[in-house]
Design brief:
By secondary structure, the protein is of the alpha/beta class. Helix content is 23%, strand content 37%. It has a single domain, classed as Rossmann fold (3-Layer(aba) Sandwich).
Length: 185
């Protein structure tokens, strides 16, 4: 079973995927979808009225979108919060988080070099989907630890209860589904 979303003139059919006993999500995979990435960045740019220094995204599905939004807003650099510590990082700053799509707690990691870049700066925190908001909240805390101010929280899709939030900018909402494919409240 599929659920169709529209972003501007573009439509995508998202397959329902079981993630829990009585929960299915409509699987949204932005990676590889250049057309949708460009259109979403165009629409998000129009909604970003506050001044900011950098786009920050979380590995990995937000990366092409961060690239495109950075280009479109005439910035020359963006920062990726990674999901693991890499040997090439200097003094990584680390936190942990549970996400709707992963069973184990995940690490969120900011390379020390990126932490220095972001210190005292204003950023747009960008993701492909905001769902429980757990990753977003953990990323905000991580950024606050390095004295970086999040001035906007932005996604293509707000899933489930996230669609009722008034502290995020998003382009379309996405329901959660029960085991039979019915939309959950
Ligand atoms: N519906 C969804 N599709 C892909 N990734 C997600 N992460 C959270 N919700 C998601």
């Amino acid at each position: 079973m599929d659920y169709q979303i529209s972003i501007g003139k573009l439509k995508r059919n998202l397959p329902l995927v079981k993630i829990g006993e009585n929960t299915q999500i409509a699987s949204f995979v932005l990676l590889g979808d250049t057309e949708l990435t460009i259109e979403a960045a165009r629409q998000l740019k129009d909604q970003l009225t506050l001044d900011f220094d950098f786009v920050v995204t979380l590995e990995s599905k937000g990366i092409p979108l961060a690239h495109e939004l950075t280009r479109k807003t005439n910035r020359d650099h963006y920062v990726v919060i990674r999901k693991s510590i890499k040997s090439y990082m200097t003094e990584p700053v680390v936190t942990t988080v549970e996400s709707i799509t992963t069973s184990e707690p995940q690490q969120l990691v900011l390379d020390g070099m990126d932490a220095a870049t972001l210190s005292g700066k204003r950023v747009v925190l960008l993701d492909d989907v905001i769902s429980t908001g757990g990753s977003l909240k953990a990323a905000e805390e991580l950024l606050a630890r390095v004295s970086c101010q999040v001035v906007a929280k932005v996604a293509i899709l707000a899933e489930g209860a996230a669609a009722h939030r008034n502290d995020i900018i998003y382009l379309s909402s996405l329901p959660l589904f029960d085991a039979r494919g019915q939309i959950k409240d």
